[in-house]
Amino acid sequence: MKAPRVTLAVSVLTLVIALLIGMAIGSDSIPLRYVFDTSDQKLHDALVVARLPRVILAALSGAGLSVAGVALQATLRNPLAEPYVLGVSGGCALGATLAIVLGLAPFSYLGASLVPLAALAGGAVATAIVYALVRRWGTGDSYAVILSGFALNAIASSVITLVRTLASPVIGQKVSFYLTGSLDSQGWPALAFVALYVCLGFGMLMRDGGRLNLLALGDEGATHLGVNVKKLERRTFLAGSLIVGAIVSMTGMIGFVGLLVPHAMRKLLGPDVRLLLPTSFFFGGAALVLCDAASRLMYQWLHRELAVGAVTALIGGPLFLALMVRRPSPA
After folding, report:
1. Domain membership flag for residue 246
2. Does some domain include residue 37?
3. pLDDT value for 192
4. Is the pTM of this model over 0.90?
């Protein structure tokens, strides 16, 4: 019991250090004392008003995408599964894009912006398709499910391109900026929205952590031990769509975080989902905060800020291909 507690403490400390780094460095380095020191109002506002919400959004997004990746990998019994690969992120992006093009961004329902709600709807549709494929082929043929996820992403991308082409140049530019993956915060209410859905989904997954471990025995083995596999899969996909939909609605497409962080944690800690979920939560948050800090640091050489989605793709894409090469061929 002592080792998991130490591991969890290290993951929390890593996130705290990453948050401090994300706050302090960027296109311009700012001493952290200005968080509490208002003697220089400009520096104080740069830290608290501009940088702090962005860093928090990065932490929430990295944490949420990572735990969704852990859950999907456990459900499909495949370490290559993650929201971006399975097409869930593409569905979320398509829903949000349609809302932006239709001019729904200024409107809200019950206090929630319609763009995040549309992203949630798009993610739910994509999740339902993935789940239907899982039930059709079974988790034993998860390669087919992953390939179908790539097809879903391609379809969503094609529809987004078509809609963006037909929209006005101003709207098309907004959609293009959104799709690159940005952590520009839309204010504290938006952060509260993301935090609510990420924490709700994370709580659902943590409650089922022990049951997700039993899925490694196969459907029959888990059923014999008292697990209702179909209900567990539905809850897992629901929690994943809540998390991913909320994140993608605010950040756009940020890929491979939900693949690489769980994979690294599994290599270090083993397959226990009960430990992988919390450690991936904190390490995933730290990873995306550091990627965002790196993208802001690049401003000094590029004289423009590189979208964090591009940074994660540049890192994650080659590593994903390396994982694919190392995996044994399906029978």
Report:
1. yes
2. no
3. 87
4. no
Tell whether 183 is covered by a domain: yes
CATH number of the domain encompassing residue 91: 1.10.3470.10
- What digits encode the pLDDT tens for the residues 88-99? 888 888 988 888
Any domain includes 317: no
Question: Does the pLDDT at position 107 exceed 60?
Answer: no
HEC profile of the chain: CHHHHHHHHHHHHHHHHHHHHHHHCCCCCCCHHHHCCCCCHHHHHHHHHHHHHHHHHHHHHHHHHHHHHHHHHHHHCCCCCCCCCCCHHHHHHHHHHHHHHCCCCCCEECCEEHHHHHHHHHHHHHHHHHHHHHHHHCHHHHHHHHHHHHHHHHHHHHHHHHHHHHCCHHHHHHHHHHHCCCCCCCCHHHHHHHHHHHHHHHHHHHHCHHHHHHHHHHHHHHHHCCCCHHHHHHHHHHHHHHHHHHHHHHHCCCCCHHHHHHHHHHHHHCCCHHHHHHHHHHHHHHHHHHHHHHHHHCHHHHCCCCCHHHHHHHHHHHHHHHHHHHCCCCC
pLDDT tens-place string over residues 224-242 = 988 998 899 889 988 988 8
Q: Could you list the residue range(s) of the whole structural domain that residue 212 is in?
A: 79-253
Q: Is the pLDDT of residue 110 over 50?
A: no
- Give the total number of structural domains in the chain: 1
